[in-house]
Amino acid sequence: SSPAAAFVSSSPADTVIKATSNPIFTHKYTADPAALVHKGKVYVYAGFDEAPTRREGYVMNDWLVFSSPDLVTWTEHPVPLRAKDFAWAKGEAWASHVIERDGKFYWFSTVEHATIPGKAIGVAVSDSPIGPFKDARGSALITNDMTTDIKIGWDDIDPAVFIDDDGQAYIFWGNTTLHYAKLKKNMTELDGPINTIKLPNFTEAPWVHKRNGWYYLSYAYQFPEKTAYAMSKNIEGPWEYKGILNELAGNSNTNHQAIIDFKGKSYFIYHNGGMQPDGGSFRRSVCIDYLDYNKDGSLKRVVMTSE
Ligand code: FUB
Q1: pTM strictly above 0.90
Q2: pLDDT tens by residue, 238-282
Q3: Does the interface ipTM go beyond 0.85?
Q4: Which has fewest Cβ within 10 Å: 80, 85, 101, 158?
Q5: How far is CA 249 from CA 71, 171, 244, in A?
Q6: Is the distance from CB of 244 to CB of 255 less than 8 angstroms?
Q7: Which of 29, 32, 203 to mutate to test the pocket of ligand 1 (most atoms within 8 A of CB)?
Q8: Is the CB of residue 31 below 6 angstroms from any atom belonging to ligand 1?
């Protein structure tokens, strides 16, 4: 696989990258993309896979942010958030999601909790989509002891936040069991009970989006992971399982997607393990492909490309 993105120039603050094919970034391994469209630009927030070649296991300390006006020219901004920026966290910058509300940007992040065993979800805030972000609470929003399925230490991971047209915000998260709860307007507190959604072979990585009156809930399916999805007319369900959306992502045993509309087209942003010479489950690379809808609102299977 030949490098797709050419390293063009750098300054102490920003690095400019031209990406004419997948993977979009080749100077670093990047994983778990979340994407935000804001004022004519796409922001991609990704975990930084730093595992040395042949190491089996995640080495993830920082998150990265990239912005682009056209999905070809990307700017990598200075590191906007590190797992250790949450003083209560031990580390491990796993999957995250950034969303804007009333001019502030909220970064929901998975980290390892320092004192409550297992993963936890924190929230950081900034006035800018590129940060810097600061812990918004001083404590975790969700910890492993708040849900009953405490068989594994990584069941409270992978936040996906969605704000409905009526202004109500929801957070979805989980591994093996998919949870969701309402968020207060301040975006830093849960509002009401933690609920559970049952979907076939749910593993992790939920992402919720809405289009033409349909809610879509895509997620990592089985292990190694494909991406599957469900649809509903109501954000609180019931969700109807609709099938596989994306196949195994190269030699990565995880699959993690973000879905956006940008300048009239829909995009599926994900990571793939097989796109760089030493790539794999712990050295993943963010890719972008088109997402197409059928007339009835269902989704066409993603065609992963290297172009
Ligand atoms: O990158 C670490 C974990 O792997 C993420 O939190 C999951 O979604 C999976 O991609």
Answers
A1: yes
A2: 999 999 999 999 999 999 999 999 999 999 999 999 989 999 999
A3: yes
A4: 101
A5: 20, 25, 13
A6: no
A7: 32
A8: yes
